[in-house]
Amino acid sequence: MTIAPAAPALTRRSRRDLRGFLELLEQRGRLRRISAPVDPDLELAAIADRVLAAGGPALLFENVIGSTIPVAVNLLGTQERVLWSLGMERPEELEALGEKLALLQQPRPPKGAREAVRFGSVLLDVLKARPDLDLTPPCRQQVFRGDEVNLDALPLLRPWPGDGGRIITLGLVITKDPETGTPNVGVYRLQQQSINTMTVHWLSVRGGARHLRKAAAMGKKLEIAIAIGVHPLLVLAAATPIPVQLSEWLFAGLYAGEGVRLAKCRTVNLEVPSHSELVLEGTITPGEELADGPFGDHMGFYGGIEESPLIRFQCVTQRRDPIYLTTFSGRPPKEDAMLAIALNRIYTPILRQQIPEIVDFFLPMEGLSYKLAVIAIDKAYPGQAKRAAMAFWSALPQFTYTKFVVVVDKNINIRDPRQVIWAISALVDPQRDLFVLEDTPFDTLDFASERLGLGGRLAIDATTKVGPEKRHPWGEPLSRPVALEQRLDARWAELGLADVQGSEPDPALFGYTLEHVLERLTGMRT
Q1: For residues 452-479, b (16+ Cβ closer than 10 Å) or e, as one string?
Q2: Distance from CA of residue 236 to its chain's centroid?
Q3: Are 304 and 443 in contact (CB under 8 A)?
């Protein structure tokens, strides 16, 4: 038997910059370098999409047509690599991070010495997470100003045939509140409009949009910076809309376990991660907009064309021989869906703190990672499932757009669709257990809504009914004596069935597994 070599440890450097993370992936055999020429128009995304769907490695395209800059993609294409980006090895570690964030979100006086020590430990983590300033940042090794700015030199992708242009997808979009100076870091799509301009597509509730409205009211331009090619951990932190009263950089430092090193921009009063591969510096004049879109989106359709704020860039700084980090949207599986799986576990302790009866919750990738949620509760009284669904919708901002909530008992494995389907089929009466809210806010990319921007929500109470929820006797659930099961365990080999193992049915035998997984299993068994 061949013993696989031990995986290299997660190093401090691997948590510092994109290059360190690429080195880690290569050491662990999870990075593939592609030297053949590849076109960033349609072809590169199509290749990456196939590799991601097969659970394949991260990709570094070293020969991108039309640019001298290599392109990294699919870095977070598996849950395993998402964990590595956070310096973790096991999914359970994500919940420990979530518990830390939950304590900071709703701090309460400790009830005893143990809780006091735990709270003190979290405060120490906050001190460690404070950002610091890098006076000789790598991101300023090369500087281009004014007429030297050339967005055409960047290997921007056009992922889908109907897309309206070339886009940036994994840049940290950084702005400051014009009144308070508080920074906001988000991940928004940007479309190239000319050699030195782009439009930014952000929802009106996002921080950057709020800052632009304030700048307009004050008669000012809004300064903006786009940091491209940062460590994936910072992308994950920026994409996490958790209402913690912390600065964006401090929050990212909590994810990293150490402070983010920042650098001052050259032409705007903003700070960016000092290890960024590329930084675009510009301004938005309130009211100056251009048509943005259409683009293939996570719903699996092309979005519409919208008038969006125009950014005029006056400066580009970069590292020597920069690397361009990108991704693309579309129907799952995609990298954003893999991020959502990790965020799901981080959210769980935060939800438990706000809604104590929640034991676990799951956002299936096939439900677009936020459109459908399955919640397991420890049910104690009638009507509790509806209460839990209502509380879920209001717990965190991103759950505002969750259309369907299925509430099940705590003994149901919510990550097993067979058990969830059984609970819906066996415990739900549509006349009693469906709860609909009409005309609630939705994102405009949800074309299923009768009116774009407004739609209904549905909660399904698939819990065991108690008290006045029952109007007739309910049958007893089927089970076998424990003694019988133990006796069978002892006699299994005697019965000649030692080669038949496992108490849970194999889902591949009952039509629940995707075709490519079935093919893989078939290949393994032949």
Answers
A1: eeebebebbbbbbbeeebeeeeeeeeee
A2: 6
A3: no
Phi, psi for 510 (deg, rounded to 5): -125, 20
Please list, in sequence order, all residues whose beta carbon lies within 8 angstroms of the beta carbon of residue 402, skipping any fewer than 6 positions away: 370, 371, 372, 373, 392, 393, 457
Fill in the DSSP letter of residue 499. Answer: T
pLDDT of residue 204: 82
Q: At which residue do the structure tokens 């990319």 appear?
A: 445
Predicted pLDDT of residue 351 = 81
Give bridge partners of residue 407 from the DSSP assignment: 375, 461
User: What is the number of other CB atoms lying within 10 angstroms of the CB of residue 36?
Assistant: 8
How buried is residue 139: exposed, middle or buried, by Cβ count under 10 Å (0-12/13-18/19+)? buried
Q: What is the reported pLDDT for 449?
A: 74
Token reading at 53: 């769907």
Contacts of 374 (CB under 8 A, 6+ apart): 361, 362, 364, 405, 406, 408, 414, 420
- Strands (DSSP E) contained in 384-496 are 404-409, 434-441, 454-462
- DSSP string computed for 83-147: HHHTT-SSTHHHHHHHHHHHHHHS----SSHHHHHHHHHHHHHHHHT--EE-SS-GGGSEEEEGG
Cβ pair 446, 203 in contact under 8 A: no
Please tell me the predicted confidence (pLDDT) of residue 242: 55
Beta carbons within 8 Å of 457's beta carbon, 6+ residues apart? 393, 402, 403, 404, 405, 436, 437, 440
Task: Calculate Rg over the CA atoms of the chain.
Answer: 25
**What's the CA gap between 358 and 396, in Å, rounded?**
14
Furthest-apart CA atoms within the chain: distance in Å: 85
Dist. CA 254–CA 221, nearest whole Å: 32
Token couple for 459 = 């909660």
List the structure tokens of 377: 């509760």
Residue showing tokens 């491209």 = 228
Tell me the residue type at 331: R
Contacts of 109 (CB under 8 A, 6+ apart): none
Parallel, antiparallel, or unpaired for β 197-201 and 189-192?
A: antiparallel
Contacts for 218 with CB less than 8 Å, ≥ 6 apart: 178, 179
Q: Tell me the C-alpha distance between 226 and 278, whole Å.
A: 8
Helices in 12-74 by DSSP H: which ranges?
Answer: 18-27, 43-53
Structural tokens at position 466:
């108690």
Q: What is the pLDDT of residue 9?
A: 46
pLDDT at residue 521 in the model:
44
Residues recognised as catalytic: 297
Question: 177: exposed, middle or buried (C-beta count within 10 Å: 0-12, 13-18, 19+)?
Answer: middle
Average pLDDT per run of 10 along the chain, which is 526 residues long? 40 67 96 95 93 90 97 93 88 78 64 60 75 92 97 96 95 95 92 98 88 96 98 86 65 83 97 97 98 87 92 98 95 81 77 85 78 92 91 78 91 88 92 87 72 83 89 80 88 80 59 48 45
- CA–CA distance, 173 with 200 (Å, rounded to integer): 9
